[in-house]
Amino acid sequence: MSEKSKTLPQELRLATSVHVKYIQSLDTRKDEYEYWLTEHLRLNGLYWGLTALHLLGHPEALPRAETIDFVLSCQHENGGFGAAPGHDAHMLSTVSAVQILAMIDAFDDLEARGKGKAQVGKYIANLQNRQTGTFAGDEWGEEDTRFLYGAFNALSLLGLLDLVNVDKAVDHVVACANFDGGYGVSPGAESHAGQIFTCVAALTIAGRKNLVDADRLGKWLSERQIAGGGLNGRPEKKEDVCYSWWVLSSLEMIGKTHWIDRDQLIAFILRCQDPENGGISDRPGDMVDVWHTLFGLTGLSLLEYPGLEPVDEVYCLPKSTTERILGK
Amino acid sequence: MPPKSKAAPKPKGTEPSKQPTPTPSPASNTTAVPATIAARSQFRYDDSRPHDAARLKIGLAGLPRDEQAAWISARFARTPAARTRLPPKAQRELWRQVNEASFPVRALRGSKHSWGRDRNESEVSGYSAERFDEREGRRAQLTCLEVASRGFRERREREGKGVRDIVTGDKIVVTEAEVEAERIRRGEMAALRSELYGTVQGSFALDPEWDDIVPIPQGEPEAALAAIAYPADYDEAISYLRAVMLKKEYSQRCLRLTETIIEMNPAHYTVWLYRASNVFALKLPITDEMEWLNKVALVNLKNYQIWHHRHLLVDNLYPTLAGNPDELARFATTERKFLTQILVQDTKNYHVWSYRSYLVGKLGVWGSPEELKSIEDLIDDDVRNNSAWSHRFFLVFSDPAHTTPGLAATEPDPAAPQDITDREVEYAKEKINLAPQNQSPWNYLKGVLVKGSQKLSSVEDFASGFVKGLGNKDGSEAVQSTHALDLLAEIYAEKREKEKADLCLRRLGEKWDRIRIGYWEWRRKCLEEA
C-alpha cells in the first residue's frame, strides 16, 4: 500500500495482500464443487485473476512459465483457444488467451511454441459474418456484441484488425443503440451496462467513438448510481460491484466519469471486499469470486485509488501492457 | 507334513487329530468360542503349536521337562532325519511319545493373511465367525454374477463377430431379455460391490447399452496451473461425451447422455451444442424438444445456453412454418405463453427478453395486439420493469410497417404515425402517475417525443405537476420526481428560458439528486454556453 492509502481510515483501505493471496489460492481449490462447475470459464478466470494481480502490483504472484504452458495447452489447430484443455475453441477464451499473453509479454512463445499470431487472427476473423458484420462465439453461430468487442480487442493487440470488416461491424453496433442512449446485446434488446461497455469500447477501438450519443448515454450511465453509492446495470436493478467496471469504463471512454459520485462508489467497492480472506463480492456481505474481485479493482483503479496500477478503460488490461503493445 | 512313506509304521494309539478341536489347550487361554475370525485364526495357530507361546516367552530351557521333550519330539518327527537317521525301533518310540503328547502333527504356519477392510474402512479381521461367513457368502454371490456377466459380454462379442451357435447353427443373437437381465445383474453386482467394498460404480459402466464405447478420461497435464477435479459420476459422463463427440455419433443414447450431463451441469457449454446436433441429426420434433427445454429453463433461470439452444431450435423450425400463417400464429402463441410463464419467475431476465425481441423479429409479430397486451400486463404487474418498457419501445418503434430503416436510435423518425406517438405519450404519462420517481417511463416518454418529432414542451404541464415551489426557501419546495425536474430543465432550455432551466439544474445538484451533481453542473455549463 502506498503512503497515501495508509493514512485512510480502516473502512477505506484496500486489503491488498489478502487479495493477492486469495487469487493465488484459486488454482488450489480443485476439490471445490464450484471449481468444476466453472470449467468452461477456466481460461477466462485466469485472465481475471492475472489482471487483478497486475493491478495490485503483484504480477509475479502467478508463475509465468506455467501460465504460458496452460494457455498454450488450450490452443487448437485452428488457432483458437478453448476454456480449458479439451474444450472446444471459443471467441471468449481466445480473447482471454491473447490478453493473458499480452500481459506477460509472451507473444514470442505463441509464435515459437503455439500456433502463432497469424493463426489466432485467422480464427477470430473467420467468426465474422461478412454480410452482417457481427461476430459469432464459435462455429455454432451465437451472436453477441461481446464477441464483436472481444474480436476487436484481441485483433488490435495482435496488430491484425485489418483482417476483419470493421465498418460492417461498426454498423451493427450502431444498430444495437437504443432510444435511451444505451446499447443492447442485439438490435432491439434492452440497454444494459455490460453491453454498453462492449459497444462503446468496440467503437473506440475502431476509431468511431463519435457515433456515440455521449450526452444521452452519459446521463443514462450516471443514473446507474443508486443511494448506497454502488452502480447497477439497468434501471431498478440491484447494485453490483462488476458494474464499477462496465459503467465506469464506459463513462471514462466518453469523458464523463465526473458525472457520478466518486467517493461514494469507492466506499461501496471497499465495503464489498473480504478483508480477512481476500477477494471482492458483488455486494457487501456476499461470497467473493475472482470476477468481482477483478472488476472491483478495475473500478478503484479508474477512480485513481492510491496504490493501484492504472487500467486501460478500453482493453481492461494494465495501461503498462497496452502502452507497451499499442504504443498508446 | 510328516513324511508318509511305507517305511514309517503307522502310529499306535489314538489317531493324531487332523483338526484341532475348539477346546481349551495349554497354548491358549480362551474359554469360549473366539469372538473374531482373527482371534479364531490365532487360536488355530496357537492350538497347532502347543508350548510355542510359552517357549517363545521363556525359552525351551524354561519349559517343564515333559513339555520340553514333547516339543522336541514333535519337531523332530517332522524332519526327514526322523525317518532316515533313526532305526525303526527308535522311530516307533518317537511316534509313541508324539502320540502321547497328542500334538497336532501339522503345525500351522504363521500367516500374514489380511482380509482387508470393508466399506466402512473397518478391518474384516474383526468380524465374528457368523458375520464373516455371511460376508463370504455374498462374495461368492458376487463371483457367480461376475461369471455370468462375463458370459454376457462374450456372447455380445460373438454376436458382433457373427459367430454361430454350436448347437443350433444359427447366428448368435443377444436378445432384449438378455440385455435386461444383464442390466439387472450389473445392478446387483454394483450393489454387492458397494456393500462389500464401498466401491461406487459409474452408471455408464453399469449400463450394457454403453459397452461398445471406451470413455475418454480427462487428460490434463500433471499439476496444471488451473487443474480441474470432478465428482466421479460427472467425470464418467463427460468421459463418455468426449468419446461419442469424437466419433460424431448421433443417437438416442447420446441424447440421453446430454440430458444427464445437463442435469448435473447446465452451464456446460459444449454439451448443449452437441445436443442440438443430435436433435437435428435425428430429425426429432422440435416442439417436443422445446417442451423438454421449457422444463429445464424453469429450474435454471440464470442459464443462458438454454436460450441460445432455443434460438437454434427456432431457426431450425422456422422454415417449416414460414409459408403458413396459422402455424406461425400458433407457434407465436405457445411461445408467448411459455415466456409469460418464465417471466413470472424472473421478470427481468436479460436472456429471456433478448430472446423475445429476436422472436418478434423472426416471426414478424411487431404489430401483434397479443404481444403488446402481454407486455402491458407485465407493466401492470410491475411498473418498474425496465425490460418490459424497452421491449414495448421496440415493438412500437421498430415495427417495419412504420419505421424508417437506417436511422439512429435517438433520431426522430418521420415515418412514426402521429396517433401512435400520441397513444404512447399518454400511456407513459399514465404509468408515470403510478410512481413518479420510476425512471423507465420517463426515459420512455422522452424517447417517444424524440422519435415522434414532438417538442418536449408539449408535456410541460404534465412535468410541472410533479414540482412545486421550486426555489422557495420557506420549505415549501416539493419535488415528487427528479426526472420531472430534469425534463423541465430541458423544456425550459428548449423554450430558451435559461434562468428557469438553470434553477431546476441547480436545485437538483444542491438537494434533490446530489449524487449526480457532476452531471447537473455540466448541464448548467452547457446552458451557459448555449
From TrEMBL, chain A:
Keywords: Metal-binding, Prenyltransferase, Repeat, Transferase, Zinc
Family: Belongs to the protein prenyltransferase subunit beta family.
SUPFAM superfamilies per UniProt: Terpenoid cyclases/Protein prenyltransferases
Catalytic activity from the UniProt record: geranylgeranyl diphosphate + L-cysteinyl-[protein] = S-geranylgeranyl-L-cysteinyl-[protein] + diphosphate
Transmembrane annotation, as ranges: none
Superkingdom: Eukaryota
Organism (species): Lasiosphaeris hirsuta
EC number: 2.5.1.60
Cofactor: Zn(2+)
Keyword Nucleotide-binding: no
Stated name of the protein: Geranylgeranyl transferase type-2 subunit beta
Domain Prenyltransferase alpha-alpha toroid: 15-317
GO MF: metal ion binding; Rab geranylgeranyltransferase activity
EC top class named in words: transferase
Cofactor: record remark: Binds 1 zinc ion per subunit.
A Pfam family of this chain: Prenyltrans
Xref: PANTHER family: GERANYLGERANYL TRANSFERASE TYPE BETA SUBUNIT, GERANYLGERANYL TRANSFERASE TYPE-2 SUBUNIT BETA
InterPro entries, per the entry: PGGT1B-like (IPR045089), Prenyltrans (IPR001330), Ptb1 (IPR026873), Terpenoid_cyclase/PrenylTrfase (IPR008930)
Function: Catalyzes the transfer of a geranylgeranyl moiety from geranylgeranyl diphosphate to both cysteines of proteins with the C-terminal sequence -XXCC, -XCXC and -CCXX.
The keyword Zinc is annotated on this UniProt entry: yes
Gene3D superfamilies associated with the record: 1.50.10.20
UniProtKB/TrEMBL annotation, chain B:
Taxonomic superkingdom: Eukaryota
GO cellular component, one term: CAAX-protein geranylgeranyltransferase complex
Names of required cofactors: Mg(2+)
Pfam families recorded: PPTA
E.C. code: 2.5.1.58, 2.5.1.59
InterPro entries: Prenyl_trans_a
Regions of compositional bias (Low complexity) in chain numbering: 1-11
Region (Disordered): 1-34
Family membership: Belongs to the protein prenyltransferase subunit alpha family.
Protein name: Protein farnesyltransferase/geranylgeranyltransferase type-1 subunit alpha
Native organism: Lasiosphaeris hirsuta
Lineage: Eukaryota, Fungi, Dikarya, Ascomycota, Pezizomycotina
